[in-house]
Q: What sequence folds into this?
């Protein structure tokens, strides 16, 4: 055996190369974020062009493929190199964007969205690759920003989307922009970032991989079509039953397997389960805010619902922009503070601030100033909570399992992110008011009462508070010394990597 080191990589701080590397990876993540904002604004136009009432598949298809295959990407990244897999999934997404842009049928458009789904894996591949190759002084700040800095383009995107929709290419021009961002990401990552020398050689457990994809797909399909088919319909019950049964079978099989597809034993025995649940609670509220906030901002006060700011669609940038800037600023602060304060304490504070901000929004969403204030508070908490997720993974997970475990965190987030809006809609159902047909809306419309809006904000606040409980119950129990000793012991026994540099973020040495 020979030992390789890369001490040269671990020296120094931010310079042109590492900045370009970070920007390259962030272009992929930002393309993922912009997809939801842009295509969400284009929903009506896409439904009209393709003459379909199944437009929800635009997001469901990519979420399904991205969440289902993320564990496989994580496993392959640990075994064959995180840079290779980052470039691969971004290239696949690039092809997906192009296919959707040139599609002439809804089926082909959705095929492109399926291929774009694996871009979701760049979220965890980014900070996992950072851990392996970035200088120690840049690691924590970079990892924090990689997860919480996904709103860099939050201010210009609504304006850009509105302009693109007004062009002759319409929503297709959005997909070409996203394809361009994916291409830029690929070029910068290939040119600027060295491949990680950390490897975990292992055979792919095909049975475990199939079981993982099967239970995730069944449950997510059940969540996605519950409202359409009816939650008590035979199809939904079969999907949930099959998903639950396959999940149990997957857990039993993985615990007995010496080299399982996902190391369930590690998840069960350590802090990983708590991190998965915490992340799901912390990010689920983001998808709900994206639904509730437009209702409040765009609602005409003259409608008599007791709330509404009556602003145009572009006015959403006045809220999403400051909220995103608050999150980014807080992520920078968290990256600095994490050198002296355990990420678990910062995560607890983040969830608590989210809960306070959303509780305030529930009570005071009747004026521009009050709503903006409480959403900025929420943004501060959101920045801290999201920034802590990669830091918690970096602290708790051995390098050999880094991408694999990070992908599992993403899967948990996908499930609750998909379910949370549906749960919120169900909670708001008693406050639904159907409006009669008009010239502008021949089929009528709908709006929600102020009580329903308040309950939605309170529900998200509750999720954040539950995240506090998870952190307190599972992530604060082990002291730093105990965690470091446990990690060091495991790494030395396995002989996979040397432990020098693990705790301070420097590049580890790999055995080949």
A:
């Amino acid at each position: 055996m020979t030992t390789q080191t890369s001490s040269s990589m671990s020296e120094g701080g931010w310079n042109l190369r590492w900045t370009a590397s970070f920007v390259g990876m962030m272009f992929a993540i930002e393309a993922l974020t912009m997809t939801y904002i842009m295509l969400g604004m284009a929903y009506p136009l896409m439904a009209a062009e393709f003459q379909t009432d199944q437009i929800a598949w635009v997001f469901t298809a990519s979420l399904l493929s991205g969440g289902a295959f993320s564990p496989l990407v994580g496993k392959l990244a640990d075994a064959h190199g995180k840079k290779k897999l980052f470039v691969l999934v971004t290239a696949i997404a690039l092809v997906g964007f192009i296919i959707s842009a040139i599609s002439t049928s809804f089926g082909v458009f959705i095929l492109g969205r399926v291929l774009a789904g694996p871009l979701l894996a760049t979220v965890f591949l980014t900070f996992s690759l950072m851990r392996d190759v970035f200088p120690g002084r840049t690691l924590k700040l970079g990892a924090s920003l990689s997860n919480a800095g996904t709103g860099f383009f939050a201010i210009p995107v609504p304006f850009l989307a509105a302009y693109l929709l007004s062009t002759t290419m319409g929503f297709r021009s959005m997909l070409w922009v996203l394809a361009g961002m994916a291409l830029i990401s690929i070029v910068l990552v290939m040119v600027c970032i060295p491949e990680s020398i950390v490897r975990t050689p292992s055979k792919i457990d095909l049975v475990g991989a199939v079981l993982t994809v099967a239970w995730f797909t069944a449950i997510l399909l059940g969540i996605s079509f519950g409202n359409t088919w009816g939650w008590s319909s035979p199809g939904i019950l079969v999907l949930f039953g099959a998903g639950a049964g396959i999940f149990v079978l997957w857990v039993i099989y993985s615990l007995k397997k010496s080299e399982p597809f996902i190391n369930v034993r590690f998840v069960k025995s350590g802090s990983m389960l708590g991190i998965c649940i915490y992340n799901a609670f912390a990010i689920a509220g983001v998808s709900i805010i994206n639904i509730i906030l437009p209702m409040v901002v765009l609602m005409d006060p003259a409608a008599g619902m007791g709330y509404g700011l009556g602003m145009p669609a572009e006015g959403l940038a006045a809220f999403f922009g400051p909220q995103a800037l608050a999150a980014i600023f807080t992520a920078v602060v968290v990256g600095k503070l994490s050198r002296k304060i355990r990420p678990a304490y910062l995560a607890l504070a983040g969830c608590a601030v989210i809960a306070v901000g959303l509780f305030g929004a529930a009570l005071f969403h009747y004026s521009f100033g009050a709503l903006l204030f409480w959403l900025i508070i929420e943004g501060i908490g959101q920045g801290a909570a999201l920034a802590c997720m990669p830091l918690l993974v970096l602290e708790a997970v051995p390098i050999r399992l880094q991408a694999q475990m990070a992908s599992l965190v993403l899967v948990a987030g996908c499930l609750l992110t998909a379910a949370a809006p549906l749960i919120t809609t169900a909670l708001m159902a008693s406050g639904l008011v159907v409006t009669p047909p008009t010239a502008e809306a021949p089929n009528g419309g709908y709006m929600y009462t102020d009580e329903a809006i308040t309950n939605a904000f309170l529900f998200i606040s509750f999720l954040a508070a539950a995240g506090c409980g998870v952190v307190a119950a599972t992530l604060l129990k082990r002291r730093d010394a105990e965690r470091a000793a446990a990690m060091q012991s495991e790494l030395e026994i396995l002989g996979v990597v040397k432990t020098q540099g693990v705790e301070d973020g420097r590049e580890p040495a790999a055995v080949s």
User: Anything to note?
Assistant: The CA atoms of residues 489 and 499 lie 9 Å apart. The chain has 19 helices and four strands.
